[in-house]
Amino acid sequence: MPEQKQNFIDQNLQDLNNDGVDRRGFLKCMAWAGTGLVWTVAGGVPASRAFTKSYGKDASKGADFTFVQISDSHIGFNKPANPDVTATLQVAIDKINAMPHKPDFIIHTGDLSQLSKPSEFDTLDQLLTGASAKQIYFVPGEHDMLSDNGEQYLQRYGKGTKGTGWYSFDQKGVHFVGLVNVANLKAGGMGSLGHEQLEWLEDDLKGRSASTPIVLFAHIPLWTIYPDWGWGTDDSEQALSYVKRFGSVTVLNGHIHQIMQKVEGKVSFHTAMSTAFPQPAPGTAPSAGPMKVPADQLRKVLGITDVNYLVSGRSLAVVDSSLADSDPSASGSANGSGGR
Amino acid sequence: MKRNSFWVASFTAAVIIAIVLLVAGSPNVTANDQAATANAEVKIDNFVFGPQTITVPVGATVTWTNNDDIPHTSVSTEGVFKSKVLDTDEKFSYKFTKAGTYSYYCTIHPKMTGKVVVQ
């Protein structure tokens, strides 16, 4: 399995432009670090940093704002991979609440529910009221579109959004765009943004200064990770062409229930862990379905992502931590992930 | 008399040979007649419709059963049939009354595709 994973990472690395930064070594280390990953994007150039115990706390200290990405809560799922997804979501919320700096908001990158049932959305909402951050931004996953093409989701979380639920907002000079790539999926295809949304996106970004940091978030990865399992978006190329001119672009996704990262030019891609159950690494299992791990390992493969933004450096620090980490910096030391 | 017997014998032999060939050529003659009203099964597991292509006679009913631990759907690409969301162990049946090839897929995981050939 390690060899397979390594080859897969190498495959991705070949796509990257060589600009002098030793990305190969940098990214290999990042990929192996598991949950304790940290990198910053300063002016569009990624730079690794030693992930020491103190850094974990410093990441949010002095940041102009911080937010947390959670994903794939799958409320309603109750199979062996995790018979109690509400319990693990609560652990994630407790973790958020224990952070030294209260996040300004939370972004949920989809698959809120398992079957789009009202009771599932109710349970999620109820649990999230206990989070320290009251402002929560959502984008739907394919599991949230199961009733009347996402009508239930839109009624609850679609206020102020367009089409199937896309929208944008600004926070301290950073422009956030929530995209929906789980509607009107075509047979044999992967994720899809659609013509209307792409037109809206182009228009939404028009006229913005290239120094505006951009954060795109959507459920299914906006880069092709593994087509056989549908891990990609058929028309993301066009969307990414619209952000090409910006100095710093961060793409946050979910769907695959594991951390994957890629840097291409000034665009940094990141997928988050689920708070419900893990999924296998590409090609390492017959399918992408829920992966069973020993009960005492479950919390190590579930997690949240802390993002800290520094206006001065126009940098976003993205820090993943598992639900097993009591302290966001602890996982880094344990894995020895010095970023190199 | 002798000539008549010869023709009768030949005719009988020909009929017997014909029957033998007919039966040998289609050993399931009886089974096919029964299959016209029988059910065919498609099992969904590991994000796959199994078998991916199923061939049934006109009038047969195909039943999809979701044995996966994730919900799936079975939806015709031409709008001919559409299952509700099938959670684990849930089923969907559709009776095919017209010959043709029916492509379908899972609307939740669109990489999952299948085909029902009705003839």
Topology:
The complex is a heterodimer of chains A (340) and B (119).
Chain A: H1 2-13, H2 23-32, E1 38-42, E2 45-48, H3 53-58, E3 65-70, H4 85-97, E4 105-108, H5 118-128, E5 136-138, H6 151-157, E6 167-171, E7 174-178, H7 195-205, E8 214-217, H8 236-243, E9 249-253, E10 260-264, E11 267-271, E12 303-310, E13 315-322, H9 330-335
Parallel strand pairs in A: 3-4, 4-5, 7-8, 8-9, 9-11
Antiparallel strand pairs in A: 1-2, 1-13, 3-12, 6-7, 10-11, 12-13
Helix pairs in contact in A: 1-2, 4-5, 7-8
Chain B: H1 2-25, H2 29-35, E1 39-45, E2 48-50, E3 53-56, E4 61-66, E5 75-76, E6 91-95, E7 100-105, E8 113-118
How is this structure best summarized?
The complex is a heterodimer of chains A (340) and B (119). Chain A is of the alpha/beta class and 340 residues long.
CATH superfamily of chain A: Metallo-dependent phosphatases
Question: Which fold name fills CATH's third level, the topology of chain A?
Answer: Purple Acid Phosphatase, chain A, domain 2
Structural class designation of chain B: alpha/beta
* H and E order of chain B: HHEEEEEEEE
Strand order of the largest sheet of chain A: 2-1-13-12-3-4-5
Instruction: Give the total of domains of chain B.
Output: 2
